[in-house]
């Protein structure tokens, strides 16, 4: 059996999770290289993951002929240039979301990707690879719900991160709540409906931390989307979920409705105590999407070996970013915004 | 113990339910009179409910000095004039929702009500008297959810009525999906938040019966509301619920979330069979709100005896109608609509 | 419409609930008389319920020719003699469970009942009249579960009463956990299966209050039952439920399974907070079976007016008591016990 | 990093699952060898799993010095002798449950294991490694439920296998329902309570296939267990679950109750359609315990590398088998059976 040699860039919280998967949980691949400006992270990669080679300069890693594929888990602002460089060097590329922050730069990057059709490119919309989302997609495609008329998707981060977010909010450059949190939900809307978003209205409210108003950030926001075929979309995003990490998606069709994680059940345990009957919940995205992260990476490696492009494309990244920006524009301008197709 | 003598007008499906409650399930009241243009309905009221007196002319019933209170369950177009007449004759009045269809006429009616402050007036927003909604309201007022930031409310009618609705859609004069279905949800938004609706955007899609496009009706619609303090509201209304009658309300606050009937459970039974694990569901509003209809009528009688105005006022009817009309206007005009306060 | 004049005996906690229902919630009946040795309870009945006549001596009430039916909610030790006396005086009788504590006395009482076939006799196995149990029974009779092979039924009282129970345990003469708590579950086993119990084994454990061992009482007990056709029965009874009042019944059949109240949901509300996703629970039997108590009394009155014997018979009381006694015997003797049919 | 070379014996349905895990999903191990009398299975292991060496004779595999650990997934009747041989050859051993069918032979095997304390021995009670069971065990050990008083555990196989089971029932030599199905539940009872089983009573009923009576097999059975400290145990086992694979465990303690998989949810999806609100269910043990199988094997490899004995011991296998045999004896003899400690 062939093994794909992979180099990862970015060893922050998310990058470390990916690196561990590449080292231990994905068949047919070897985590050969790791790149980070932080030397202690590189030492960790060698010691804990058995990485062969480390780089402080990304240009060195992409130039290494031993490496066949690049796994990008660096800060969002670097994604576009790192994708382009890796593509130019003939590497397969997996990039975490978002593909980029600036529409022009994303389009330029898509052009580079398009110019290298033999190389695999995949974007990290991992929710599509979660077993529950896969099961739901299967039911939709089998026609079990009839024609979809409405999709509602929530992404609400646990409260425990909120205080720290507020502290650094002015400096975070998160792109705003919709770009930061809803981008996965927007991708799901497009994936389930096979439609593009035409018009959006976004609103929000800061109640626990009204000071967020001053820095243009939101605790909780909502957006309503009208898709090209009039299918309706509803997004709720937030940073203040007391019960953990609430990612939920609802599909309404002419033949039935379906909900994914209407309760974000941690496991199959129900506790009955003085609080009532309690379902413990997933507490964060690494817990909730642990298996989805593994599945998407297995798919990336499978696609490389099978010489087959994955179903998540660069264009998916472009469209989701467009809609997220439209939501932010709508929220700031207090007006309906049409999304340019 | 005193007994309140009541006369009911309107003995259609909803009226018959009210009449049975008044006759059998409400202490301290007597269903003395019944008014309907349909003679067979009056005969039924005498035979099955033991009503003492029947009237084919509403003017005769309100003029009857034996009757202390009028219960209005006639078609919506008659509500305003019947309320005004009853008020003028010194009667207490319970009116089914909506209080009226035309804003000017509603305001005129409110003026008449205001001119008779000794007489009880109550509007039939029965959901407020459902035990689950009462329990939720109690938690909100006790601060269990912190400050509310978002409220989502669904009202989706069972599919079994859809075909017939489509057949008569052109002639139904329902006022549109939002006036017809969402008015209860709008009342809940106002009740839970103690805020008014400032701006709305409403959209919709006809998929099972595209011919509804031609008559300005909707199978499924959604509206997003911005309230005066920026609290967010999301409404979904529909006429095509396969699993029964789906009325659900969600509250998101800074300290927690709460859902009323996220599954519209029929009772406490769970069936496990070849379909999986199944919760049977409420099939229609008389089933789901059976006890709420009784509770609101008990409250009406209690208020009469205690000489105390109920918490559901005529103004609640006016404001909910304003918002429903704004949603319809927004849907038709494909634009944001500000609600005049 | 005819009205049945009823006299109630026993105005303790359960009796008061029945008295309120008879006074306010049951059509076609009048709570005419009330009997209690406690004068303040009689005063309450006059003042709050509008009872016409009160008695401190039961013999006076049953002799009153105005009274057509007797409602027995006195302590269990009085049931048999009160039933017999009322029957002898030509009254219809509703008796709370258990029909009696001593098998010979119960059989004697059944003979008296049998000697007055024109008078209605009904026993208070109210769970049969709960809407969820009714719904389940309907599915069983429609064959939805196939042939039943196993039934499991739990009755666990809320913890809040346990400390007080322990304090008075030696003096309580409860008849033991199985007679006190499982008798309803035993009735359900017989009702759902249409079979009698042939053999039982009962065990128990005191952990929170080991001192209960000394007085022959149990915190938590379990019994396994083999029915005449080999259908299996499992009972769990207890006095230490932290989440409220847990009454649950499971049916396993050849075509499916069914559970009634696998979560004793208080209402349709789900709360999501720092504890996780929480379903609030019913806290006690008056809450859980509020409507069942009304339904059984409506049925009693309906049967009187329709001259029709109810489906809950005196024999149901006899058989359930037999099985409860067999469980207690088994627990004490640490052995299998055959129930005499 | 070190890699453990493993040889597997038995490539039936369960063995193939283990072999795939060893080949692809377990870090730090290599599936080096495979043994089966079926040549096509060995060819599959070479082709699909990349196994280096295959054996038709188990004696050859255990003698191979390259192999450090043996993974036994052969028919139950071979377990004891294969464990003993592998131990004698100095190998670490993982054996599927049951450890054996005959108590004397199991005790002899335990003696051999005890004579090789440097070699790891682990038994395949995989449920202990399921995340939900692990989470529950953690809560119990943290005292969240107080002292346990009752544990109920169900193991019911999907109906789809029943017809074929009935066909071959006479020849299957399953050891009976309790040895075949309840052995995992018995292990859970011992694991959660840290107690042994003292006395059992087991009953059963054949309703869908009464012909099973003739061959001493059961569709559905139940057993009640009294543990040494009076903790109660309830087991239900069956072969006729219409909704899939129902494995459920309930713990009742003085401070709370807990249920693992009271609904055997397949994933996080809820479907709402004409059947009601439906949770799709796990359909079989490979689906339900997919991750648990991986986790137990990871633990086996970790124990080898860490030179640490796993918490599942040979004695766990012996005790569970004793109790299963006692249940079968009780069922056949229609009597209480004491388990020899």
From TrEMBL, chains A, B, C, D:
Would the keyword Oxidoreductase turn up in this protein's UniProt record?
A: yes
Can you list the GO cellular component terms from the UniProt entry? Answer: cytoplasm
Q: What domain of life? A: Bacteria
Family matches, as Pfam families: GFO_IDH_MocA (PF01408), GFO_IDH_MocA_C3 (PF22725)
**Domain called GFO/IDH/MocA-like oxidoreductase: residue spans:** 133-259
* Boundaries of every Gfo/Idh/MocA-like oxidoreductase N-terminal domain copy: 4-120
Q: Which residues form a coiled coil?
A: none
Describe the family membership recorded for this protein in Swiss-Prot or TrEMBL.
Belongs to the Gfo/Idh/MocA family.
Fetch the PANTHER family from UniProt: BINDING ROSSMANN FOLD OXIDOREDUCTASE, PUTATIVE (AFU_ORTHOLOGUE AFUA_2G10240)-RELATED (PTHR42840:SF3), NAD(P)-BINDING ROSSMANN-FOLD SUPERFAMILY PROTEIN-RELATED (PTHR42840)
Which NCBIfam families has this protein been placed in? Answer: myo_inos_iolG
- Give the protein's recorded name: Inositol 2-dehydrogenase
Q: What is the lineage of its organism?
A: Bacteria, Bacillati, Bacillota, Bacilli, Lactobacillales
């Amino acid at each position: 059996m062939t093994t794909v040699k992979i180099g990862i860039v970015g060893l922050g919280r998310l990058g470390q999770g990916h690196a561990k998967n590449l080292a231990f949980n994905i068949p047919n691949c070897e985590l050969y290289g790791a790149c980070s400006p932080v030397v202690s992270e590189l030492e960790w990669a060698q010691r804990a993951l058995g990485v062969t080679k480390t780089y402080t300069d990304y240009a060195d890693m992409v130039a290494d002929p031993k490496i066949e594929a690049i796994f990008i888990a660096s800060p969002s602002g670097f994604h576009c240039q790192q994708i382009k460089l890796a593509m130019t060097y003939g590497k397969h590329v997996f990039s975490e979301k978002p593909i980029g922050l600036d529409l022009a730069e994303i389009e330029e990057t898509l052009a580079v990707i398009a110019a290298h059709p033999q190389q695999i490119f995949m974007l990290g919309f991992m929710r599509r690879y979660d077993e529950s989302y896969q099961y739901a997609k299967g039911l939709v495609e089998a026609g079990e719900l009839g024609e979809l008329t409405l999709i509602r998707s929530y992404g609400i981060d646990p409260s425990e991160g909120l205080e720290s977010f507020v502290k650094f909010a002015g400096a975070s450059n998160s792109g705003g709540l919709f770009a930061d949190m809803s981008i996965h939900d927007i991708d799901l809307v497009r994936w389930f409906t096979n439609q593009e978003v035409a018009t959006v209205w976004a609103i929000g409210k800061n109640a626990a931390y009204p000071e967020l108003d001053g820095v243009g950030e939101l605790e909780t926001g909502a957006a309503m989307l009208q898709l090209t075929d009039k299918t309706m979309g509803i997004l709720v995003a937030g940073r203040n979920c007391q019960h953990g990490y609430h990612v939920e998606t609802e599909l309404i069709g002419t033949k039935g409705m379906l909900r994914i994680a209407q309760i974000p059940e941690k496991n199959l345990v129900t506790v009955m105590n003085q609080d009532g009957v309690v379902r413990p919940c997933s507490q964060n995205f690494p817990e909730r999407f642990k298996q989805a992260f593994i599945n998407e990476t297995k798919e990336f490696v499978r696609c490389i070996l099978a010489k087959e492009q994955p179903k998540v494309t660069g264009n998916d990244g472009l469209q989701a970013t467009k809609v997220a920006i439209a939501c932010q524009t709508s929220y700031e301008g207090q007006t309906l915004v049409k999304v340019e197709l």
